[in-house]
Specification:
The chain is of the alpha/beta class and 313 residues long. The chain has 9 helices and 10 strands. The chain has an 8-stranded mixed sheet, with helices on both faces. The two termini are 33 Å apart.
């Protein structure tokens, strides 16, 4: 059974979420992994995990690895995009008061349903307020979120699970301020871990074949912990890697499955079929170890065959 932990949730919210799971969601068997990469994902919102969905699927299904996720916010700020989901859930989700009340439960359920496809193991919900779209990371870091509890939980989870990698969204200037803030908190947590047991923290981005070389990124101004070892990604995984009968399948199919589960976020559905490469960036706090271990992961992803497919079929 999955581990699911909640923070800063009132009793009625917890009850509603658990009831919704009881009525409409079934857990898969708990999977034990003997070896393989161990990854902690740290993101701000339900649906941010789609940025590295193919990588996580490959790790959990073909590399005998595991992936857990720590979600910083409760996702309530996504109500503006919920028009199409109102009929599905029978709620006026685009009304701010109603949407903010209902979406935390709905979006957790969507995340966990999608997580089944890519093999997520355990879920840790920090339930910090999703105030809505902003480019400003400072507002939530300094005023809204309890940052100390997030950092403490990341360190606790690493102490318990000894992760090899922590995955974050690359905190570029133009991305959502909550994405930046979640990545900054993950960086601060990892930096505070003793170097001899510190996981490699990875910045992740998605691009398509028309822009194989992204804009250089050396760090987010004002946040020295986001400094990079190199200004370009050092590894990637191609979602369009073919497999299966006559090589007709690829990992974008799984990414689309995951995206489809986030029905409350209508605009997210427009990402289906987009983004060919999941790219991996090396933060400076990794020191000299980052490059070798990120390249090793990229090589494993590239070379591991699909476990369940037999070439003689």
């Amino acid at each position: 059974m999955h581990i699911v932990e909640f923070y800063a949730m009132n009793t009625s919210t917890i009850f509603a979420f658990l009831l919704s799971l009881f009525l409409g969601f079934s857990f898969s068997q708990f999977h034990m992994f003997a070896s393989g990469p161990k990854i902690l994902i740290v993101t701000a919102h339900p649906d941010d995990e789609t940025a590295f969905a193919a990588t996580i699927y490959k790790v959990t299904h073909d590399l005998n690895g595991l992936a857990d996720i720590l979600l910083v916010t409760n996702g309530e700020g996504g109500y503006k995009y919920s028009t199409l989901a109102e009929d599905i859930y029978g709620r006026e989700l685009t009304d701010e008061q109603s949407g903010r009340k209902a979406l935390p439960t709905i979006r957790k359920k969507e995340l966990m349903a999608g997580g089944e496809y890519i093999g997520l193991r355990d879920y840790y919900f920090m339930d910090q307020q999703d105030t809505g779209y902003t480019l400003d990371a400072d507002s939530v870091l300094n005023i809204v979120w309890d940052t100390s509890i997030v950092i403490r939980k990341i360190k606790e989870l690493h102490g318990r699970n000894n992760y090899d990698y922590v995955f974050t969204l690359l905190p570029v200037s133009g991305t959502h301020g909550h994405h930046k803030a979640a990545s900054i908190l993950a960086l601060r947590a990892v930096k505070s871990i003793a170097s001899e047991v510190r996981p490699i923290i990875v910045g992740c981005s998605v691009t398509d074949s028309t822009k194989l070389i992204p804009d250089p990124f050396l760090g987010l101004p004002g946040f020295p912990e986001t400094a990079m070892n190199t200004q370009l990604p050092i590894g990637s995984f191609n979602r369009l890697t073919p497999f299966g009968f006559q090589q007709k399948l690829n990992y974008q199919i799984v990414v689309n499955w995951l995206i489809a589960e986030h029905k409350s976020q209508g605009a997210m559905q427009l990402a289906m079929g987009k983004g060919q490469f999941e790219q991996f960036w090396d933060y400076a706090i990794n020191g000299n170890a980052g490059k070798e271990k990120i390249l090793k992961l990229a090589e494993l992803l590239r070379n591991a065959p699909l476990k369940e497919y037999q070439q003689n079929k």
